[in-house]
Write a structure and sequence with these properties.
By secondary structure, the chain is an alpha/beta fold. It has two domains: 202 residues, 2-enoyl-CoA Hydratase, Chain A, domain 1 (Alpha-Beta Complex); 49 residues. The chain contains eleven helices and ten strands. Strands 1-2-3-5-7-10 form a six-stranded mixed β-sheet, sandwiched between helices. Helix 1 packs parallel to helix 3, helix 4 crosses helix 5 and helix 9 packs antiparallel against helix 10. The chain is globular, with a radius of gyration of 19 Å.
Length: 266
């Protein structure tokens, strides 16, 4: 059985799909071995190219979403500087692909979400969690510094003081705390996790993929800028979109005719 599974989930009433990535290294609590990272990479690439996929989702089998990097593998490569550097760079690039995907991405946290698992979550646009989920950075327990986004993304998601508390102590928080802090968008019963994902997918399926991609890219860019620079960038992209987007014209025509717009795919 593969350490990572792929499944396209049909969205009822549409020809769109959720591209699901399932971490399946159950005996190792879905630790992120090289094989797992490589398969995540391949899955993102495949779903990114598939015009029928409107949402990319990642979840885990068993009691864990993921408990992070494979520390046994770290032991093998830590004394070879180039190998460790190349590995962290590659794994970080894979997280970057998830973060920069033109399509919306959601982490479906089914259980323990620690260290590299947390970094996967932070690379996604949204996160939904089951009621029993637990979250932590975990690296401090083994004098490791997370290299896939713990320091760069966690403070932006929950604020610097809260992030530092998690990073310094490796303390775990529960799903309700994660929701309160903005680490996840929604907490649901286990049997509703996939249904909530499909509900999100069905909402996205009727929207313009081109516009969604631009809004995503613009929003992430604006977060890094001053208010003045962000407003200037927003204005520039809005005007460019109006001059280039056939979907915007489709949408405005549908508004005028009081019909439902049907946007192009791909």
């Amino acid at each position: 059985m593969s350490d990572v599974l792929q499944e396209k989930l049909s969205i009822q009433g549409t020809d769109s799909h959720v591209g699901l990535i399932v971490l399946n290294r159950v005996e190792a609590y879905n630790a992120l071995s090289p094989a797992v990272i490589e398969k995540i990479d391949e899955s993102i690439e495949e779903y990114e190219k598939d015009t029928s996929v409107c949402l990319i989702a990642i979840t885990g089998n068993g009691v864990a979403f993921s408990t992070g990097g494979d520390l046994k593998f770290y032991r093998e490569i830590i004394d070879t500087e180039d190998k460790f550097d190349l590995w962290v760079k590659y794994a970080g690039q894979v997280m970057g692909k998830l973060a920069s995907s033109r399509k919306p991405t959601v982490a479906l946290v089914n259980g323990l979400c620690i260290a590299g698992g947390l970094e996967i979550l932070l690379s996604c646009d949204f996160a939904y969690a089951v009621e029993s989920a637990k979250f932590g950075d975990g690296h401090a327990n083994y004098a490791v510094i997370g290299g896939y986004g713990s320091q760069s993304r966690l403070p932006k998601r929950i604020g610097l003081p809260r992030a530092l508390e998690m990073l310094f102590t490796a303390r775990m928080i529960d799903a309700e705390q994660a929701l309160e802090w903005g680490l996840v968008n929604k907490v649901v019963p286990m049997n509703r996790l996939i249904d909530e994902c499909l509900t999100l997918g069905s909402e996205l399926a009727g929207k313009s993929a081109e516009t969604t991609a631009r809004v995503k890219n613009l929003s992430y860019a604006c977060v890094e800028l001053s208010d003045e620079a962000a407003i200037d960038l927003e204005r520039s992209v809005t005007v460019q979109h109006a001059s280039e987007s056939e979907d915007m014209r489709i949408g405005l025509e549908a508004f005028e005719k009081k019909t439902q717009p049907v946007f192009r795919r791909g």
